[in-house]
Specification:
This protein has helices spanning about 10, 30-45, 55-70, 80-95, 105-110, 125-145, 150-175, 180-195, 200-210. By secondary structure, the protein is mainly α. This is Lipoprotein.
Length: about 220
């Protein structure tokens, strides 16, 4: 049921250096701002990981969160905006990591408070919680599909959650949006945008698995 474009190829291709002479400020453009913070998240993660090692899944999730947030800025997820953000990450990376990218860490935290939320909760409404969990799981599976070898266990769990929730959503989607696929897709995209702002994706999805996964039944 995915309508999200893969983001992993450009994210995985980032080449990360860590120091340089010039100070950097966050761009005003929303796509470039999110892309810049995605690069900073990748640089920060790489400094804490052996260059020969795959980034931890939690770190990769933090990077992916920025295209997701950029795609969700209008209140309904836009795969085009998320993909543009991912592409800009690759384009901007050299200029950012060649300068004082560390100066951007507090700027990014202030600009994207969702990325560091500690108090998380799913919507109380069961349909809204199921739909958001389904869409966020779908996004993560799609965004990191090309890194299945590295994150297979986590993505398998998310894929299982997505499939488990798809059928129960059918009556609610029809009640809310009718039977037209475009209308249902719009409702799905609104749900994903709302869940993008709940907090770090893997923390939100942990709540989803606890509530709707095999053990949560």
């Amino acid at each position: 049921m995915s309508n999200h474009l893969p983001l992993a190829a450009t994210i995985a291709a980032l080449t990360l250096a860590s120091c340089g002479p010039k100070a950097i400020m966050l761009p005003e453009d929303p796509i470039d701002r999110a892309a810049t913070c995605g690069v900073v998240a990748a640089a920060e993660a790489r400094t804490a990981t052996d260059i020969r090692e795959v980034l931890p899944f939690e770190a990769q999730s933090r990077i992916v969160h920025f295209p997701l947030l950029a795609g969700s800025a209008g209140g309904a997820f836009s795969g085009e905006a998320a993909t543009r953000t991912s592409a800009r990450m690759a384009e901007l990376e050299g200029g950012i990591t060649g300068g004082k990218w560390e100066d951007l860490i507090p700027q990014c935290r202030a600009a994207y408070l969702e990325t560091a939320k500690a108090q998380l909760a799913l919507p109380e409404n069961r349909f809204e919680a199921q739909l958001g969990c389904n869409q966020l799981a779908d996004f993560m599976v799609t965004a990191l599909a090309e890194q299945e070898m590295d994150y297979g266990n986590e993505l398998s769990e998310y894929r299982d959650l997505e499939r488990r929730l798809e059928q129960p959503l059918v009556p609610g989607l029809r009640a809310r949006a009718g039977v037209e696929p475009a209308a249902q897709k719009a409702v799905r995209n609104e749900a994903l945008a709302a869940f993008a702002r709940l907090g770090p994706p893997i923390a939100v999805l942990k709540l989803c698995v606890d509530r709707f996964g095999e053990k949560g039944r």
